[in-house]
Amino acid sequence: MGYLAKFRVWRGDNEGGGLQDYAVEVNEGEVVLDIVHRLQATQTPDLAVRWNCKAGKCGSCSAEVNGRPRLMCMTRMSTFTEDEVITVTPMRTFPVIRDLVTDVSYNYEKARMVPSFAPPADLEPGDYRMAQIDVERSQEFRKCIECFLCNNTCHAVRDHEENKTSFSGPRFLMRIAELDMHPLDTVDRRQVAVEEHGIGYCNITKCCTDVCPEHIAITDNAIIPLKERVADKKYDPLFSIASLFRRNKDDRTAPPAAKV
Amino acid sequence: MATTGIEAPGRAQIGAKTLRTDRWWITPLVTFIALSGFLVYSTWRVLSNQYYFYEPYISVYYSPCLSNTCVPGSGFANTPISWWSLSPALLTAWIPLAFRFTCYYYRKSYYRAFWMSPPACAVAEPHGKYTGERRLPLIFNNVHRYAFYLGLLLNVVLTWDAIIAFRNHDGQWGHMGLGTLLLVANAACLWMYSLSCHSCRNAVGGRITHFSKHPVRYQMWTFVSKLNKKHMQWAWISLGTVVLADFYVYLLASGRVTDITFF
Ligand code: SF4
Ligand code: SF4
Ligand code: FES
Ligand code: FES
User: Fold this and answer.
1) Residue A76 belongs to a domain with what CATH number?
2) What is the pLDDT of residue A1?
3) Of A86, A241, B64, B115, which sits most exposed with the smallest number of CB within 10 A?
4) Which ligand is nearest to the CA of A163?
5) Ligand 1: nearest atom to the Cα of A150
6) Are residues A122 and A227 in the same domain?
7) Which ligand lies nearest the alpha carbon of A60?
8) Together in a domain, A109 and A233
9) Domains: count for chain B
10) CB contact set of A164 (below 8 Å; sequence gap of 6+)
């Protein structure tokens, strides 16, 4: 049943490091994370790896397997041939701490910059009433497990470190879209989407969608609709003229200044 | 490759611009060849200014034909731009070009296949700097909706062309040939491509927040959302039908084949 697989694992820290070769036993039904654990248990007790649920639900074990951003716990060994060399590296967009563990603070900093949900001032918690069809569009986005594979894969920051200051990545553009579509939210988020979160950096090449382990249609259902909403407000002259004559004014307010 | 990307200080020093072992370059390569082929073919047809009309069929590139130089019977005489003396296709072919150039799907494909930004996911792009769609000229992609509206007008014209293709070569109704079939199929595919557009999805209902207060728009949005899932497919299929329909008209008009008639 079992066989010896050829693994190449990146070992090192932010000073330097490299790929190292290992031969590790693999049994039927195992995933890449199992093999990394076996490596830790049998050959490299100091190998650093972050994980938690082993069920694709905590978003901790993000890494790159044969160059593809994946959850290690959801990458089945049966998808590789027995003589294939399997390369495992940490995510390449975030600073490495050690071995397979990266520092994902960038994502938490961007998360804090998103103005939080703002219900109408006179509505008490517990009195929120929403129709299912009004919330169901953004429910897809709530499946996010914050693995940050999307932000890791987005070339706007992956290939351009300097853009990290002005671009928040697909995860947080999706969060802004979610709130902008929320039936009880009173804040107009379109301006901040451009100015503070850099939606203009996204060129809709869809790599975030391709790697999302929750199969959220990030680009089609969150980012493009948000780009269209931004165009309504910012780039479409007819829309600005029409809104002067509208009966139901868009009474959403600008968000409070971001906490950085 | 710039040291600002995957080689930036602090990141794992791995070296390779990608460790992907699959053939990630196939999709951008095929896209590059297909789109380049389409551009070359379209440029040739738009500039050639001949073989675009064979009663009752008109080539998509030349419809509506708006100048006095149009082949008799193919267009409209005495329009405000009838003084135009270059190929009449130049008067209208920029509309579908602008529509497709600013289309969210084609943007994805040409950014990947032509500009390699990025060539494929987790494959480093060759550019030192990247500003996305925030500057001229790419900022214009944000007004895709205008190209969409113009494209809709053109669809109406092409639908009319398909309807009058049920006349025979001498102008009598009740005919159907291979050309009729191609023009009808092309118009239908162009409608599917246009209606599945992301700007259409936003316009019919995507921009509203309370679907429950707008049941009709919610229905329309639901319908367009379904079509939208297949937008990429419609983008390619309609590109193919444009070429097929046009090429058949070319073959007929240049006398290379005679129309295959069904009735
Ligand atoms: S679609 Fe946009 S946000 Fe997603 S990976 Fe591509 S550039 Fe980044
Ligand atoms: S959107 Fe998908 S890829 Fe991005 S953090 Fe959430 S689950 Fe991960
Ligand atoms: S360990 Fe939780 S997602 Fe992999
Ligand atoms: S035509 Fe492709 S998104 Fe509008």
Assistant:
1) 3.10.20.30
2) 67
3) A241
4) 1
5) 5
6) yes
7) 3
8) yes
9) 1
10) A106, A157
Q: Which domain-ending residue is among A101, A121, A154?
A: A101
Q: Which residues of A touch B130 (CB under 8 A)?
A: 155-156, 159-160, 163, 201
Residues A165 and A67 in one domain: no
Whether A72 maps to a domain, the answer reads yes
* Domain annotation covers residue A188: yes
Helix or strand holding residue A11 (H, E): strand A3-13
Which residue's alpha carbon is at the smallest distance from atom 4 of ligand 4? B197
A73 within some domain: yes
Inside any domain, residue B21: no
Could you say which of A101, A124, A147 is where a domain stops?
Answer: A101
Is A164 inside a domain boundary?
yes
- Residue-wise pLDDT for B119-149, tens only, equals 999 999 999 999 999 998 999 999 999 999 9
> CA of A243: how far to CAs of A11, A234, A238, A246, B148, in Å?
57, 12, 9, 5, 21
Number of Cβ atoms within 10 Å of the Cβ of B250: 20
Question: Do both A212 and A118 map to the same domain?
Answer: yes
The pLDDT of residue A247: 63
List, for residues B158-196, the tens digit of each pLDDT value. Answer: 999 999 999 999 999 999 999 999 999 999 999 999 999
From the list A138, A132, A128, the residue with the least C-alpha distance to A175 is A138
Contact (CB<8Å) B104/A204: yes
Q: Does A96 touch chain B (CB under 8 A)?
A: yes
Structural domain for A79, as ranges: 3-101
The domain containing residue B220 runs over which residues?
41-127+134-253
Q: Are residues A172 and A49 in the same domain?
A: no
Contacts of residue A27, Cβ cutoff 8 Å, sequence gap at least 6: A1, A2
Looking at this predicted complex, what is its ipTM? 0.95
Task: Give the gap in angstroms from C-alpha A134 to the nearest C-alpha of chain B.
Answer: 6
Q: How far does the CA of residue A34 sit from the closest CA of chain B (Å)?
A: 21
Top residue of A93, A155, A202, A243 to mutate, by most chain B CBs within 10 Å, is A155
- The encoded tokens of residue A253 equal 């307010």
Whether residues A133 and A156 share a domain: the answer is: yes
- The partner residue sitting opposite A235, judged by closest CB among B5, B8, B143, is B143
Position B222: which residue type?
Answer: T
CATH code of the domain in which A208 resides: 1.10.1060.10
Total domain count for chain A? Answer: 2
Sign of the Cα torsion B8, B13, B15, B16 reads: negative
Query: Could you report the per-residue pLDDT of B30-76, keeping only the tens digit for each?
Result: 999 999 999 999 999 999 999 999 999 999 999 999 998 999 888 88
Q: Which residues of chain A have pLDDT under 50?
A: 260
Q: How far apart, in whole angstroms, are the C-alpha atoms of residue B118 and residue B114?
A: 10
Q: CA of B186 to nearest chain A CA: how many angstroms apart?
A: 26
**Ligand 1 center to residue A205 CA distance, Å?**
6
- pLDDT value for B1: 44
What mean pLDDT do residues B86-94 have? 95
pLDDT of residue B97: 97
Distance CA B125, CA A166 (A): 19
By Cβ distance, the residue of A87, A205, A220 closest to B228 is A220
Atom of ligand 2 nearest to the CA of A211: 3
Global pTM value: 0.95
User: From ligand 4's centre to the CA of A214, what distance in Å?
Assistant: 25
